[in-house]
Amino acid sequence: MFTNLWTITKKELSGYFRSRLGYFILPIYIFLVMLGTFLGTDFFARTNETLMQFFMLQNSVLQLVIPAITMKLWTDERRQNTLELLLSQPVSLTAMVLGKFFAAWGICALLLLSVSGLWLLSNFIIPLDNRGILVSFGACLLMSGALCAVCATVSALTSHAVASFMVSLLVCFILSNFNLSAWLQKANISNEVLIRSSQVLDFKQHFINIVSGQLSIANLFYYLSFMVLALWFNVAAVEYKRN
Q1: Cα(238)–Cα(219) distance, integer angstroms
Q2: R_g (Cα) of the chain, nearest Å
Q3: CA-CA distance, 199 to 183, in Å (whole number)?
Q4: Whole-angstrom Cα distance, residue 116 to residue 7?
Q5: In this structure, how many other beta carbons lie within 10 angstroms of the beta carbon of residue 211?
Q6: What is the pLDDT of residues 9-56, one digit of tens each?
Q7: How many CB atoms lie within 10 A of CB 6?
Q8: Considering the entire predicted model, what is its pTM?
Q9: Do 209 and 215 contact (CB within 8 A), yes or no?
Q10: Which residue from 134, 117, 147 is spatially nearest to 226, judged by alpha carbons?
């Protein structure tokens, strides 16, 4: 399985650059990050030792970019009439789903790596908490993995890349911005169990906790569980389309 998984991942990764999508996404991501960092945050403040504002910006930028990364994962197979051929290969459906997911996640890792130079250069300008920054990069990677998993499922459920992009954009926006706990408080619902549950399930809050230095097993478990659940739905979606 691991050989097949690596083969699919490598094929999908190279496909991003054969189709020029990778060459389009990378400069767009860098432009958005740099623009937001230098115009929208006090990046060079002496108190910004963990670059927290820079990492909080990643939440907004990645939810715009990841739908573009994942929109063709499964829709292209259907558009090119290669889905049936792909599913007839002696490769498990799980390996196919994971291969496509790891390829998209790998592109996200490449995007984050492309702006890591800003961190290295900043060390010469302001004193930084490099260990905390490394953890924050890990938080971005975890969050992007969760978003890739759910957007890949959307791609498997839609027939066109544009539709996949739009639906994924909406899903990412809801996940990253919907605060159920705040809505419960506005509705004067004071059930402690319900409020606590809404806080535990808050997608963005786990990211904020890690970036703020409050890394815990609960944060890691949340994002890893989110990925596993989304990928399970991805397998189920492809299986449904096949049948």
Answers
A1: 29
A2: 19
A3: 11
A4: 28
A5: 27
A6: 998 898 888 888 888 899 999 999 988 887 766 666 655 677 888 888
A7: 13
A8: 0.88
A9: yes
A10: 147
Q: CA triplet 229, 57, 215: central angle to 5 degrees? A: 55
Tokens describing residue 140? 């971005």
Three-state SS for 194-224 is HHHHHHHCCHHHHHHHHHCCCCCHHHHHHHH
Nearby residues of 220 by Cβ (< 8 Å), 6 or more positions away: 142
In this structure, what token pair is assigned to residue 115?
Answer: 């702006």
- Containing 136, the helix (H) or strand (E) segment is helix 130-157
The span from the CA of 2 to the CA of 9, in Å, is 10
Q: How many Cα atoms sit within 13 Å of 26 on the Cβ side?
A: 14
Residue 160 is given by DSSP the state S
d(CA 120, CA 116): 7
Q: Which residue has the tokens 């905390």?
A: 132
* Closest C-alpha among 70, 54, 55 to residue 22: 70
Q: Return the DSSP state at 17.
A: H
Each residue's pLDDT tens digit, 123-149: 887 778 888 889 999 999 999 999 999
In this structure, the dihedral spanned by the alpha carbons of residues 212, 214, 216 and 219, taken in order and rounded to 10 degrees, is: -40
Contact 72, 155 (CB under 8 A): yes
- DSSP string covering 71-120: TTTTHHHHHTT-HHHHHTSSS-HHHHHHHHHHHHHHHHHHHHHHTHHHHH
What type of residue sits at position 75?
Answer: T
